[in-house]
Amino acid sequence: MMTQYLWLLILLPPLVLALMIPFGGKARRLALNLMSFAAIPSLIMALPREQTHETWADWLLLGSLFGVDHVSQIFLLLTALLWTVAGIYARYYHSNDPEKHRFGFFFLLTMTGNLGLIVSMDIVTFYTSFALMTFSAYGLVVHTRTSAALRAGKVYIVMAVIGEGFLLTGMIMAAWTTGELQAEYIRGGILESRHSDLIIGCLLAGFGIKAGAIPLHVWLPLAHPVAPTAASAVLSGAMIKAGLLGWITFLPIGEAELAGWGMLLVTLSLTAAFSGVLIGLTQDDPKTLLAYSSISQMGFVATVVAVGMAAPRAWELALVGCAVYALHHGFIKGALFLGVGVAHEVGESRLRQRIVLAGLALVAISLAGAPLTTGALAKSALKEGVYIGPDGWAVWLDWLLPVAAIGTTVLMGRFLWLIWRHEMGHVEHGQFRGMAIPWGLLVLMSFPVVWLTPVWYRLDVSAEIAFEAGNLWTAAWPVLIGGVILFFIWWGIARTPREIRPVRIPAGDVLIPLEWALAKTRPPEPDQVVPSPPDPVAALSASWYGLFAEAQQGSRTSRFGGWLVRWDVAGLFFLALTVLLVASMVWWQ
């Protein structure tokens, strides 16, 4: 009986602390002071154990099943550790923020959902946790209340509602087939359903939005730059992995050959791996660049998921590779995002600047997969599944993935360039030490934790494979070629009297033509004058008065647009959409 409540220790600390904040006074101060430690019980539960237990709580929701296996334990380790470090960082980052209580409220609610979905083994608890994480994160995206943050929040919430609609449809249809709510039965139910392709498509799309899969990625490069740095770290380091975990948990990967879906996913994934790098190179904001880097890196992982869909025999090794790579990417990307804030606060001390730049360079080359780094181990683990994938796939994936790694090396070189030229040298506001300590700990912890994880959790991955001569060369040559390209770029910049700026692709890329098309469908009324913002992207947004319109202070929205963005109308719209989807499902059955 006590084990039921033991699993609830993961959910209760952040949830209770979040609910204390609205009361104000001592309760609020206590909650904000303890915010950094809310994920500690989850971190303890993530520690390796001889056996993993499942607990059925029949009194919660429709009956909740809690538990973890060795793969979800790795996700729990990553998530709990990253939220803890980000919480300590946020305490100093927001020390002078008059709205820090609002940030803490949404931070804790998002943490609750993120941790809860990892230990949920039934669709009701998983979906409830997933939705809590998704909609609470909106408060983190719009925290600064700038026009860019409000626009990013609108795009995020629209994509979130679309994703929830896909997920709800797919999960209900699968549960309808089996009559069960546990995840293990859902996978079998998908294969038994007459509409298995529809269910798989819904789940791929619903979780793909969170995982940043192309073309559903448009919220990432808009949300990451405007969110506070600690929020950006968990958005990219932990929350984006929820989409990957959803694919692993609910899709029948490894149980049947899904060659068509595998081919579609590998095509989209390789597109993401390359386009994320190419578009990221055109960005001037380091956080936007890192957002596109996340899209590219998640493309690597999704490629291996596609291999498992097309060749069930490869999934056992591919699954382990996905977990190790997710752990590596989460730590490294969290360290990169937190490092942007540290660099901004470093002050004019040259010694501090060099130390921070060295730390960022260390995690940057690890993301590129340099030999003897966590990236080399993670990519070696990923490739194990690729080698026993569908016939012919290993040949061209063995070349395409290293070429993408060359792009990652160049992308990280531009990131370091932007940090050095535009972020460092600012006046220190007194919070450098408080922010630098958790960031430094994350940088230092990421290497031993990732290297020791296969040993701790007894995974079928040997750290020795990263030291083999062939793998050392495989990891080295993309980084070397990328380094040569960077040398010639920097050499050319040094010989040019003016700064060379690449052609900038606006953040959101494919969203911009969509906004332009929507702008053409509803021109402004004659008596309505819309001020032209300096940003051409914002100008396109401002010309449409719908969900994607940028909030212009002092301007009036159209009657239709104002009606559409009301919360009550949006809620009724979502409810009607859900009823329609469920009715369609019943009719199909």
Quick tags:
589 residues; mainly alpha; two-stranded antiparallel ribbon; 23 helices; 72% helix; 1% strand
Describe the secondary-structure layout:
Layout: H1 2-20, H2 25-34, H3 40-45, E1 54-57, E2 64-67, H4 70-93, H5 100-119, H6 123-141, H7 147-178, H8 183-192, H9 196-211, H10 220-226, H11 229-250, H12 259-280, H13 286-310, H14 315-344, H15 350-368, H16 374-387, H17 393-423, H18 432-456, H19 469-495, H20 511-521, H21 536-542, H22 559-564, H23 567-588
Antiparallel strand pairs: 1-2
Q: What is the rounded distance between the termini?
A: 39 Å
Proportion of residues in β-strands: under 5%
Average residue-wise pLDDT? 82
> Given the helix and strand composition, which structural class is it?
mainly alpha
Unreliable parts:
529-575
Strand line-up of the largest beta sheet: 1-2
Number of helices: 23
- What is the strand tally? 2
Shape type: globular
Helix content: over 70%
Can you summarize the main beta sheet? 2 strands, antiparallel
Order of helices and strands: HHHEEHHHHHHHHHHHHHHHHHHHH
Radius of gyration: 23 Å
What is the compact description of this entry?
With 589 residues, the chain is an all-alpha fold. The chain has helices spanning 2-20, 25-34, 40-45, 70-93, 100-119, 123-141, 147-178, 183-192, 196-211, 220-226, 229-250, 259-280, 286-310, 315-344, 350-368, 374-387, 393-423, 432-456, 469-495, 511-521, 536-542, 559-564, 567-588; strands at 54-57, 64-67. The chain is built from 23 helices and two strands.
